[in-house]
Amino acid sequence: MKPTFIKKGIGFAIASVIAGGSYAETTESPVSKNQQPNVVLIFVDDIGYADMGFQNLRDDIVTPNMDKVAKDGVVFSAGYVTGSVCGPSRAGLVTGRYQQRFGYHDNIGPRVRDKNVEQGLDLSVKTFGNYFQDAGYTTGYIGKSHDGDDKKFWPHNRGFDEFYGFNNGAADYFISGRNVENSEESAHSSIHRNDEVIENFDGYLTDIFGDESVDFIDRHKDSPFFLYVPFNASHGPMQAKHSDLQKFAHISDPLRRKSVAMTYNMDVNVGKIVNKLEQHELMENTMIIFMSDNGGKPDNNGSINSPLRSTKGTTWEGGIRVPFAISYRGHVPANQVIDDPVVSLDILPTTLAIAGIEEKEEWELEGVNLMPRMTGKVDKLESRYLYWLTAARSAIRDENWKLVVPNIHVQNPRYELYKISEDISESNDLSSQYPEQVERLKTEFERWNEYNEDSRWGWNKDRYPYTNGWRGRE
User: Fold this and answer.
1) Homologous superfamily (CATH) for 38-374
2) Rounded to whole angstroms, how far apart are CA atoms 322 and 256?
3) Which residues have CB under 8 Å from 287's CB, separation 6+?
4) Fewest C-beta in 10 Å: which of 61, 226, 327, 360?
5) CATH C-level class of 392-454
């Protein structure tokens, strides 16, 4: 039986540039040719696989700025993150290691595996902020952090010179005017600059993060910088600006209209960042990376993952396969679509390589440098396995095959096998037809899992028997 979905190449949406978010053509402060390259990493929240224009899968999405960035470089049609929810995915991204190596299987929760466990990214593990800071870069973190509550886990204590944002799964987009009041009851969802609560301010949160990013570039344009911008759009709460909602009044589904409007606003702020890089003639000395932290959750935020199966929180494609694009003008040829499987772990080795920072064996990084593939020095990445393990599910894939376990805790787990290179919608389970592939992938997953730490925290009382007063809960 043939798969019901035949993969088609992803093209580029052609969209007119909307005022306020287009590329600027003015120039000033040209950068020295010898300066190490900058990195701008844009990591968005709960954006579905079909929810960016450059994916060319939906007509209702308007993202001209990211479409131009993507067209300027490479779109990875098989781009993955290491987790299907926010916290673990971010832990893998910032460390360049599978987060299961240090017990980060799920979003931080109130219950812990052992009495001595403290919720937060293991302090012995370095972040990309540390690596670039150690190499003399100025490092900035503007947006959402989703880590331990104690400030020793916050970005400004984990390798980032500057942190502006919040430390929580979500925040009110209209918190302006009551940030200080909010901090008295919900400190974790209030906006901080490093340790300090920001005084009340005016504005929509995505716009505020975009403006802060522009200010960071203005202040650090004359020396190499690493700017990480984890927008919380388009994660709930679903709050869009009235002016943006008006642009999409033709969309009848109110939840989808909010999602599209919030994503549009995020793209406008991507345009602000790119405009500023253009203004300072930094585009040919800056790698821009864009991806989502996990798949969308349509019932919650109106996102769309089609043609992928399922949603955020699962290890089917809809939970872990995301829009992913990289541009590096003058260094990476434009108008490329690469179908090789790639993963968020590849970002750290790639950015270290362009910065001339030697990757050391003791760092135990688990991704690969994508530059040889993006520049055409090699026409295919070496074959490898990619792995997923959450508090309840698992999966593994290679170039052609993917094995999914929807529930790892039952006595006799079900194994689903897909020819993922042909059937990205996972519509045809081939486990009974190819038992040898099932066994091969099971064996490889078990080998990988031997080096992981058990999940440190969660919500299940049986698996996490202890509490430690996290956020006042007992």
Assistant:
1) Alkaline Phosphatase, subunit A (3.40.720.10)
2) 18
3) 37, 38, 39, 40, 326, 327, 328, 331, 350, 351, 354
4) 360
5) alpha beta
